[in-house]
């Protein structure tokens, strides 16, 4: 069985194709294709409330390329989800309809709660009796989910993201609202463990190597990495650290969002599992297709 997930974000668009196999009763998921294209839809939307004609044409071409790959890989099922940029764009639904009619690719424009729900599908195995704060920072929004004793007790999406922060398009009251949300549910909770998802925290984790904990970052280590990044120019981040152009400019504002949420929760440690929306989509696709026989 082959499954495809398309994550249409504000800073970039990703597609992952996963093969599901079964051998001696064990189900295995293997990534067979992964593509990330740096189309920053959020830049248009956060300034002008709509996707520009140039980026609209690029987007339609990209969706056509993805649809060709989905067909070539003979994918059994797929799901394409668009998040903050397309849901806030006045022409987002119109573009999604164009893609469906011209290419035959269905795009689901999802709200922040659904986005958080999908991401959490891939994280369930990490939860235990402790208290966890899941922080997912995208280009246009940040989703927070709070878990106590394996149960999700609160979830909320905020219009704070790496591209939005870079362009100074975060409304000042939103920061206070986000911190108040964290305080409401975690003020009296000791030892809150953060879980960070998103491309920027994954890159911060890579830049933090070597470290003692396999998939964990201390708050101080995040601060150290951000401090090092701030001493470098954009060109130095690209050439010395080999960061993509569309990562080199947003990684610092994104890192500060993770920091601010951790500070509000008094969380000193973060798990970075290298999972995200695309992995949650694959999980949902498998659940609705698992009655079909894997390869």
Automatic annotation (TrEMBL):
The record, for Gene3D superfamilies, names: 3.30.420.40, Exopolyphosphatase. Domain 2
Phylogenetic placement of the source organism: Bacteria, Pseudomonadati, Bacteroidota, Cytophagia, Cytophagales
**PANTHER family hit by this protein:** EXOPOLYPHOSPHATASE, RETROGRADE REGULATION PROTEIN 2
* Native organism: Algoriphagus aquimarinus
Location of the Ppx/GppA phosphatase N-terminal domain = 29-283
**Domain of life of the organism encoding this protein:** Bacteria
GO MF assignments: pyrophosphatase activity
The name of this protein is Exopolyphosphatase / guanosine-5'-triphosphate,3'-diphosphate pyrophosphatase
Which InterPro entries does UniProt cross-reference here? ATPase_NBD, GppA/Ppx_hydrolase, Ppx_GppA_N
């Amino acid at each position: 069985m082959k499954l495809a997930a398309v994550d249409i974000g504000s800073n970039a668009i990703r597609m992952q194709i996963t093969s599901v196999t079964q051998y001696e009763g064990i189900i295995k998921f293997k990534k067979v294709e992964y593509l990330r294209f740096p189309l920053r839809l959020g830049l248009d939307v956060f300034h002008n409330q709509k996707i520009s004609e140039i980026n609209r044409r690029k987007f339609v071409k990209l969706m056509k390329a993805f649809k060709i790959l989905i067909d070539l890989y003979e994918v059994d099922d797929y799901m394409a989800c668009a998040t903050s940029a397309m849901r806030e764009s006045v022409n987002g639904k119109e573009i999604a309809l164009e893609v469906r009619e011209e290419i035959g690719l269905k795009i689901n424009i999802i709200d922040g709660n659904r986005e958080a729900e999908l991401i959490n599908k891939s994280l369930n195995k990490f939860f235990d009796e402790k208290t966890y704060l899941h922080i997912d920072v995208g280009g246009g929004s940040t989703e927070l989910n709070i878990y106590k004793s394996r149960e999700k007790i609160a979830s909320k999406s905020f219009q704070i993201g790496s591209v939005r922060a870079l362009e100074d398009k975060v409304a000042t009251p939103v920061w206070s609202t986000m911190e108040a949300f964290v305080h409401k549910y975690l003020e009296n909770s000791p030892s809150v463990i953060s879980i960070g998802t998103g491309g920027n925290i994954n890159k911060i984790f890579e830049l933090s190597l070597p470290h003692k904990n396999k998939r964990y970052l201390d708050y101080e280590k995040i601060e150290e990495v951000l401090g090092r990044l701030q001493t470098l120019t954009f060109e130095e981040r690209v050439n010395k650290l080999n960061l993509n152009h569309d990562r080199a400019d947003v990684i610092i504002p994104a890192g500060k969002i993770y920091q601010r949420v951790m500070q509000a929760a008094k969380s000193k440690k973060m798990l970075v599992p290298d999972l995200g929306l695309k992995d949650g989509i694959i999980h949902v696709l498998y659940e609705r297709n698992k009655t079909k026989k894997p390869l």
